[in-house]
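Look over both lines:
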Amino acid sequence: MGIVLITGGSRGLGKNMAQHLAQKGHDVIITYHSKKDEAEKVVAEIAAAGRKGASLQLDVSDSKSFAGFAAAVAKTLQDTFGRKDFDALVNNAGTGIHAGFMETTEEQFDQMVNIHFKSTFFLSQKLLPLIKDGGKILNVSSGLARFSMPGYAAYGSMKGGIETLTRYMAKELGPRKISVNVLAPGAIETDFGGGTVRDNKAVNDMIASSTALGRVGLPDDIGALVSALLSDDCRWVNGQRIEAAGGIFL
């Protein structure tokens, strides 16, 4: 068991990942954007599971802050966990926009680049000196990188970039025995995107009817898979895209 750092771990899928990882015996560091109280509640849940937890503020859209964040991680590792490195990084933090191709503004596009693609690239780069040899990196993509739905051209394109980046990372970090994979969740019932999948029955029903297993995904479907992918049982999985979507649009 080891220490896992999850970006965007105070809510949604990141929170569920942290809960499952703690239950499986991992210590967890989570980041939050602005809601410190929510992050502290997750840290308390980690402690209730008998593990150590910590939270750090991070704006993944601001790449200039990454060096300072890495220094804060190093201090937290030493002060809270008595270590100089950690075992796994989950690049999970992100937001979505819903805008048609012709309506997407350059500002929205740049926002998606910074939050999703640029952050995965440069945050991983800055944290690599703190990831132990033989560790793991898991990047989070989306089913929308495989199938296309109107309104997600910018978001889906960034996730497609992350999937290509994952293979390059796996290749270049091989000498350090660090495995890098990408997880592509399908539509999940969370507050993401305003909670549309969770709260809009018509959308929920449409997704369920397009999915082989006949329902929309739940946070536990993803959190449980993340804890499995970061376990030693998956040590030989590297450079792979794993879609967790119940068989949507097969």
